[in-house]
Structures are given as structure tokens and as C-alpha cells.
């Protein structure tokens, strides 16, 4: 899913965040994607597309409610997860399907796949028009902590890389999520059933897109299952 904000001067939506459809009526995203500083609250969701300029297989649905995790307290980076309720249910098609939520804190796979319409380089002026994907290495907590040790990072994450976070990237550089990918899914391929994916993380924040020793942080879906289920399936 891609999330649109406000109406800019040329009457076009600003598509600034990603998300994942998890039921007919709810999209999972990042809490910091609920509101844009320049454009105001998230207004609508696009489903089923792999190019922002294409209407093929598109479902565009207004947002009726924005539900932030109750423990998300900026400028803290923890609990950066939210749900968007759609005005009416999405129609499931071969191109629009709900994501499977990962239930296990332990992830056996060494890598995961992130997708989004964000920038393709740190210097890019805007996001990609095409949906991009990248395979990223899951990085152990201790190894990741050394990449987030500046005074500012210690202020926004005083407890460091806690269990509700996933760290992923390529320490050699060259692969990463970037601005505009926030809220989008981090998934692993399941061995069974064949060709199915499981949603393990929600893109939260990074440092420099694709730079060496600069992994990104994702909210761990399994940690928030209780809250997600209480909102979506209560």
C-alpha cells in the first residue's frame, strides 16, 4: 500500500509513506506516517499498483481513522507503528491481498525483503515511481547498536535497540530503505506454503540510505500483535 497526504499546489496527492494491507479494512504503517508536517493527516491509500502513475489494478480508498500505538511518544523512536482504517473494505483480487502477520519473535531466515516507493539514493530529490524491493541482512542487536551510538540517537532510543525493534541492512553499503519507504513492509519468504511471505517488520527510520555501517530500524510486528488484534479484530 502507498499512503497519500494533503493536496499540493498542483492538486496532486503527496505519496510519502508505505503500508501493508492486513485485513479488508486496515492498513498497518508507521506511527510517524499518520501525519505529514507539510501536508497534514494521511488522507487515502492506494492498493494493487506497482507504478504510481498507473491505474491498472488500482484501488484508491479514503482513510476514516488513524490509530497510533498508545505508547508512541516522539521524539522517542519506540512503538513507531499505527493502523489506518479504510472508509470501505478493500476488494481482494490477485493484486490486492492481506499480508500474513509474523507471530514468532525468533526469525530463522538470515535475510528479509523490504519494499517501497521511497528514494533510490540518499541524494534523490524524490521517491521512485515504481515499487522497488531489496533483500536485506537481519543484523543482531549487539552489532546494530554500534551504528546508533551518537548522543542524538541515545536521546531518541535511551534503551538502545530493544526487542520491539528489528535491525536490517547491508553493512558493506549499497542496499537499504530510504525516505518515502517509511511504514512499508519488511517480509520473509516462508518455506511453506510455497511462495508466501510473512510480515516481520514495519519500516521506521535509518541514517543514510545505503551507506556502509548504516542499517535501518523496523518495528517488530510480532511484538505488537496483541495491540494490532485488539484494534483490527476486536
TrEMBL record:
What keywords tag this UniProt record? Disulfide bond, Glycoprotein, Hydrolase, Protease, Serine protease, Signal, Zymogen
Database matches in CDD domains = Tryp_SPc
The UniProt GO MF terms for this protein read: serine-type endopeptidase activity
Q: Which GO terms describe its biological process?
A: proteolysis
Which EC number applies?
3.4.21.10
Concerning InterPro entries, the annotation shows: Peptidase_S1_PA, Peptidase_S1_PA_chymotrypsin, Peptidase_S1A, Trypsin_dom, TRYPSIN_HIS, TRYPSIN_SER
UniProt feature coiled coil, ranges: none
Q: Name one Pfam family in it.
A: Trypsin
Top EC class of this enzyme: hydrolase
**Positions of the Peptidase S1 domain:** 2-233
Q: Which reaction does it catalyse?
A: Preferential cleavage: Arg-|-Xaa, Lys-|-Xaa
Looking up SMART domains in the UniProt record yields: Tryp_SPc
Task: Name the job this protein performs.
Answer: Acrosin is the major protease of mammalian spermatozoa. It is a serine protease of trypsin-like cleavage specificity, it is synthesized in a zymogen form, proacrosin and stored in the acrosome.
Q: How does it assemble?
A: Heavy chain (catalytic) and a light chain linked by two disulfide bonds. Forms a heterodimer with SERPINA5.
Q: Which family does it belong to?
A: Belongs to the peptidase S1 family. CLIP subfamily.
Protein name stated in the entry: Acrosin
Q: Provide the species name.
A: Ignelater luminosus
Amino acid at each position: 500500500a502507498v499512503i497519500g497526504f494533503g493536496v499540493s499546489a498542483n492538486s496532486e496527492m503527496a505519496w510519502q509513506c508505505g503500508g501493508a494491507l492486513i485485513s479488508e479494512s486496515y492498513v498497518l504503517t508507521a506511527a510517524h506516517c499518520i501525519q505529514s508536517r507539510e501536508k497534514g493527516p494521511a488522507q487515502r491509500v492506494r492498493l494493487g499498483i506497482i507504478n504510481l502513475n498507473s491505474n491498472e489494478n488500482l484501488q484508491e480508498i479514503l482513510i476514516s481513522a488513524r490509530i497510533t500505538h498508545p505508547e508512541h511518544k516522539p521524539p522517542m523512536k519506540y512503538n513507531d507503528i499505527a493502523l489506518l482504517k479504510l472508509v470501505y473494505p478493500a476488494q481482494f483480487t490477485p493484486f490486492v491481498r492481506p499480508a500474513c502477520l509474523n507471530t514468532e519473535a525468533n526469525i530463522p531466515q538470515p535475510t528479509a525483503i523490504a519494499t517501497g516507493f521511497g528514494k533510490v539514493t540518499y541524494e534523490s530529490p524524490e521517491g521512485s515511481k515504481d515499487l522497488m524491493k531489496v533483500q536485506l541482512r537481519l543484523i543482531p542487536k549487539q552489532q546494530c547498536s554500534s551504528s546508533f551510538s551518537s548522543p542524538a540517537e541515545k536521546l531518541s532510543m535511551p534503551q538502545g535497540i530493544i526487542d520491539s525493534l528489528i535491525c536490517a541492512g547491508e553493512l558493506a553499503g549499497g542496499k537499504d530503505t530510504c525516505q518515502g519507504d517509511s511504514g512499508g513492509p519488511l517480509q520473509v519468504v516462508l518455506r511453506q506454503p510455497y511462495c508466501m511471505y510473512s510480515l516481520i517488520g514495519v519500516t521506521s527510520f535509518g541514517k543514510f540510505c545505503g551507506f556502509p555501517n548504516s542499517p535501518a530500524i523496523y518495528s517488530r510486528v510480532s511484538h505488537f500483535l496483541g495491540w494490532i488484534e485488539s484494534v483490527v479484530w476486536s
